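Tutorial handout. Part one gives the primary structure; part two gives the three-dimensional structure as tokens.
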Amino acid sequence: MVNFNGTLVAEDTTFLNQNNRGLRYGDSLFEAIRVVNGHVYFLEDHYLRLMSSMRILRMEIPMEFTMEFMEQEILKTVESYGTNSAYRIRFTVFRNDGGLYLPETNTISYCIEAKKLDNPFYTITESFYEVELFKDFYINKDMLSNLKTNNRILNVVGSVFAKENDYHNCLLINGDKMVVEALNGNIFLVSGTTIKTPPLKDGCLNGILRKKLIEILNKTDVYELKEESISPFELQKADELFVTNSISGITPISKYRKKVFAKTASKDLVGKLNAVARLSALA
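Part two.
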């Protein structure tokens, strides 16, 4: 089932048309959210990011669009499948139909989709995972790049490139040729006990798991966190690289070019991440 503006409809129901501004102009935002056994992980963080993004894009936020409303609509969608499981939720918000580049209205609609996940916990896979730089197009160093909008054509073309060349993922760079993120999440680099991730000013997504991991690392005495630009030349010197997103958690990178990486920090941090996720679900 799909939740369209509060009404559950079958997945094959036609409820959008060619006038949809998300389709026509990418005038849309989305949140990818993990729900486990009827608990929404990091609900407040997802809600606040969505509200902030809507304000930046000058969308009109309905009065009823509270955090409790968002949670209620997500769980309504999940309940149509059964709550005792783990789900990936895509919560999409788009400006309503009308206008060309200049919209006729700033009011919004939303739709919520659910897809069942295999595991209720964040886990570290032992599968081989190779990446390469994607250098055909660059990420802009601006606030729009920090938002989770539907303008993802760079990620789409990069994913096609990765598949054509037998890579599992690609790392994206900005106009300064600095590594910004992966196709599907934020990037972290481990050198000894120092862990680096690019700053938002470099153009990376303001990821929820990025935020949570920064909070975790700032509370530990084991690692030193640095939000600093990452040069491609640093990648082969690192001990570890890993990608983070709200659905998969932490995905260790096995190989970049000739360098094979360890998974020590990834395995250490995933336990801490699961603990924080459970606490957020019970809050």
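Part three, for discussion. Residues 264-282 form the longest helix (19 residues). The domain at 2-116 is CATH 3.30.470.10 (D-amino Acid Aminotransferase; Chain A, domain 1).
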